[in-house]
Amino acid sequence: MENQTRLESWNNYCDDFVNHLRNSKAVLALLGAGLSASSGISTYQGSGSTWQGHLVRDLATRSRFERDPVLVWEYYRHRQAEILSAVPNAGHFALAGLATIKPDFLTITQNVDDLSQRARHPPELLVPIHGSLLDLHCTNTSCNYFHHHNSHDPHLRPQPSPPTPSCPLCTFLLRPSITRFGDPLPPSHLSTIESWFSAHPTIDLMLVIGCACT
To answer: Which residues take part in binding Zn(2+) (predicted)?
Structure first.
């Protein structure tokens, strides 16, 4: 009897949520690493908090990259291979589908994979606030080299390359275009989010998915 009551209560909760979602216009979603965990991409928590005995939160910093770029690039290549071997899961597709029918639905993803993009999430409604491990840019602030890695082919695999790739324009080191621990968030992304909030002073629903706080 108790289990039946719990099931009915859960079903009622789900029905209420679906109805609220259906009737919501301005919807904001914040995505964390937990969303991609079921696709096989490690998070920064638990077993994913270290790599070959190194703390990930130490590796993914500007200071560690400057001290030991070879080691950090080995870690980045490990993560890139992990991303390229993964495929979007039901959560990515559900959010992408929701965005196609709700033009006022903005998704802010903290994930540095490209699974939301491969799930065909509308790019104008997706803010990759922490960048992408598959995009590269030059560490020379006077150089504007940027390489966008097209990984829409899920069978793509990284090719053999130097341990620390160099910029083809100025020979400085390249690095993934991600927001590392301690880095400021990209102003362009913050501007996009601020513009959305200005256009939607009242939010009908916020979804927090795969974040440590959930």
So the answer is: 138, 143, 167, 170
Extract the runs of DSSP E, i.e. beta strands, from 43-104. 50-51, 54-55
* Residues taking part in catalysis: 130
- Per DSSP, the chain holds a count of helices (H) and strands (E) of 8, 9
Q: Does the annotation place 170 within a ligand binding site? A: yes
- pTM tops 0.90: no
Output the pLDDT for position 31. 97
pLDDT in tens, 49-90: 888 999 999 999 999 999 999 999 999 999 999 999 999 999
Is residue 208 predicted with pLDDT exceeding 50?
Answer: yes
For 56, the 3-state DSSP assignment is helix
Tokens found for residue 76: 């980045």
- As a whole number of angstroms, the distance between CA 144 and CA 136 comes to 11
Place of tokens 């080691």: 71
- Asked if 18 and 95 count as a contact pair (C-beta separation under 8 A), the reply is no
Asked if residue 212 lies in contact with residue 111, where contact means CB atoms within 8 angstroms, the answer is: no
Q: What is the CATH number of domain 28-209?
A: 3.30.1600.10
Question: What does each C-alpha distance from 176 to 5, 101, 126, 172, 180 come to in angstroms?
Answer: 51, 32, 19, 13, 10
| 143 labeled part of a ligand binding site | yes
Q: 211 labelled as ligand-binding?
A: no
Tell me the domain boundaries of the chain: 28-209
Query: Is 138 annotated for ligand binding?
Result: yes
